[in-house]
Amino acid sequence: MKNDYRKLKVRILVQIMATILLTGVAEIFLCTVFVDGVFQRLFADAVVRFFQGVFSMSENQAIYFYQQFFVFHKAEILIVTYFILLMFSLSLVLTRVVRYFDQISRGVDQLLVDSEQPIILKPELSSMQIKLNKVKSVLIERKRSAAESEQRKNDLVVYLAHDLKTPLTSVIGYLSLLQEADDLPTVQRKKYTTISLNKALRLEDLINEFFEITRFNLQNIELEQNKINISLMLNQLADEFYPILEHKNMSALVQSDDLVIRGDANKLARVFNNLLKNAVTYGYEDSIIEISAKKRDESIDISFKNKGDKISGQQLNHIFEKFYRLDSARSSHTGGTGLGLAIAQKIVEQHQGTIKASSSEDFTEFVVSLPQKS
């Protein structure tokens, strides 16, 4: 870092030293050529004529003043002349230095320009050029990510609004049939009632997804630190998911030592709930979801592993972004808001932990690493 501007410092130093040297050479030239050299007589005559013409002096008076100012005080006059020349020369050097600041200022202005053209500065400012281009790349990437996230959010709202209308229309339709036909057979009445209930439950899920979006954007997650038995929490979670697993003929196998950490039990339960729900959604039917918790050094790793389609590297790079969903062809039955993993990552990071995803042809795995605190 200390040598970032070495070229610039060397160039400025060279310019200053050259200015001092050239000013000294110019002063010596004036002294040896005009004051004490070849042009001394011409210089003296010019000064005398100047006094005669400007101040209306006689020749003797002009010669007297020339001797008083230029002969008897020659050393002082040369010193003053040298410093005047030096100040003038240094001002020119400073003007060139200020141009570097102008270049940097223009480079900073280009950060605000909506263009991917690189910022180009003088070679002496190569270090600043690299930094400005890095900042510009980060700003462009953030802008692109924000635009993509906003677009996914807008698309999601449109999809959810459409999906709200579909089950609502069905509920109204079947309830209207139940109201209008008093003599419906019991079996048919039960069928319509069941359909209406299922559609109403789907409506509830969609409304909860809307609230999920609002909560994620507006709330600050605050943690309540308590001791948590990870093994107990994971087993309870697997039991709660039994009906959902049974529906796909899946099972959850929990393997965990008796491990205890400090953290927010409700928030971490939400993390593990999202990961297990994700494993069920994208896992193959008739498969086993492996859940494990192991101690490693000063942390505890909680893993959720399921058999399913391989997630590509590009998808893994975006999997924890808000509103990002793996299923490209959206299913109104399985598609979520795309917030589950984003929320999970935020909660884990607030616990000073990390969450990572990996995928192969054989399985997909999410690993949460949490610090083990006493």
TrEMBL record:
PROSITE patterns: HIS_KIN (PS50109)
Record-linked InterPro entries: BphY/WalK/GraS-like, HATPase_C_sf, HATPase_dom, His_kinase_dom, HisK_dim/P_dom, HisK_dim/P_sf, Sig_transdc_His_kin-like_C
MF-aspect GO terms: ATP binding; phosphoprotein phosphatase activity; phosphorelay sensor kinase activity
Membrane spanning residue stretches: 12-35, 77-98
Occurrences of domain Histidine kinase (ranges): 159-374
Domain of life: Bacteria
Gene Ontology BP annotations: cellular response to phosphate starvation
Compartment list: Membrane
Enzyme Commission number(s) of this protein: 2.7.13.3
Enzyme class: transferase
GO cellular component, as recorded: plasma membrane
Listed SMART domains: HATPase_c, HisKA
Catalytic activity field: ATP + protein L-histidine = ADP + protein N-phospho-L-histidine
Keywords associated with the record: ATP-binding, Kinase, Membrane, Nucleotide-binding, Phosphoprotein, Transferase, Transmembrane, Transmembrane helix, Two-component regulatory system
Protein name, UniProt field: histidine kinase
Source organism (scientific name): Sporolactobacillus shoreae
